[in-house]
Amino acid sequence: MMSNGSGFFHNVFDSIAQFAQQQLNEHRMRQERLALLHDEIERVVDASEPRIRLIGDYAARLADPVEASLAYGERLLRRLPPALTLSRRAWVQDPRVNAFFATADNLGALLGSNPQLQEFFATGARECFALLLMVMREQESFSTGLEGEMLVRDVRRVTVSFSAHQLLFPVASERALRQELKQRMLSYLAGCALARINQLRDCRGDLEEQRRQLQAQLNALRGQARGLPLLTSTDADERRQASLTQRLSQVEQDLADARSRLGSLDDYLEQVRQVLSQSATLLQLEPLVMRLNRLGVKLADDSPEPGATLNLIRLSACGEQRISLLVRFCAEDLPAPDPTWL
């Protein structure tokens, strides 16, 4: 019996020791994960609401949405093809570069007028990688054209053009550029969280002002009724007072809802978490395929007219859309700064 009792207690202590070790291992893994995500979490907090650092476990509560946002950014970046070379030779030989810039001089102007590129190559670098953003426009017109062997009038044609070119985030390698873009995407989402918080603050302020005005109008109306009721239209005043009371009730209800969304630092943290969870809605990259001739006219897939197929990526963010691609160019492709380009 003593032996059986000793075995029982031994098994119990063994189970307790195993459970404690498991808990210790899980705690260590959580700490290691937080250490890996530390810089990204702090970047989000800095760009959204720094006061949430006053919450003891803010980092642990942000770990999942931050990690999910980073993973989403990775998936988006994998959709971007390898960097496209920009040069005067590429403008002649590559239909994509030719489509993006009306002339080789336009390309030179973009490279030569960018102060960030001037600073980058001033360090002695020989090659640069950057993000190119462009606005794409489609313009419809009608002209005479061939359909088979017949000359046909009023043929619909769509001309595609690219403008508002921007070169951003120059770095020394494509790998560094993709890493920079991943961090920029996370910062963008944190900025969306800040915009959401500010929107809620503004909404709360507007509702507080509406409540103040409605209360002032009600107090004035009630004061008139108490002072000289015979000089006013009782029925009209009662209807107006009922209307003001109803509006005030609705405003107070809306205000209570608005305050509940930002009533504490936990609410601010929750707003950041919610925005990060909407990464796929706030930031999108979608493929766009089209066939263009040398003049930028869109061609049907079965058109016999010579043309090139362009595989593009359209970036959607902040309600705006831009054609987005990675580009590379060498120091010798950078013309001397020209004041006429600035």
Cα-atom radius of gyration:
32 Å
Order of helices and strands: HHEHHHHEEHHHHEEEE
Give the number of helices: 10
Q: What is the subunit organization of this protein?
A: single chain
Rounded mean pLDDT is 84
Proportion of beta-strand residues: 15-25%
Largest sheet: 7 strands, mixed
Poorly predicted tracts of residues: none
- The best one-word shape is flat
Which structural class best describes the helix and strand composition? alpha+beta
Characterization of this structure:
The chain has 342 residues and is of the alpha+beta class. The chain has a domain at 198-279. It contains 10 helices and 7 strands. α2 (58-78) packs parallel to α9, α7 runs antiparallel to α8 (234-261) and α7 (174-227) crosses α9. The mean pLDDT is 84.
List descriptors.
alpha+beta, 342 residues, flat, seven-stranded mixed beta sheet
In short:
The protein is of the alpha+beta class and 342 residues long. It has a domain at 198-279. It contains ten helices and seven strands.
Topology overview:
Blueprint: H1 2-47, H2 58-78, E1 84-85, H3 88-93, H4 95-100, H5 104-112, H6 115-122, E2 127-147, E3 150-171, H7 174-227, H8 234-261, H9 265-276, H10 279-282, E4 283-292, E5 298-299, E6 308-317, E7 320-330
Parallel strand pairs: 1-7
Antiparallel strand pairs: 2-3, 2-7, 4-5, 4-6, 6-7
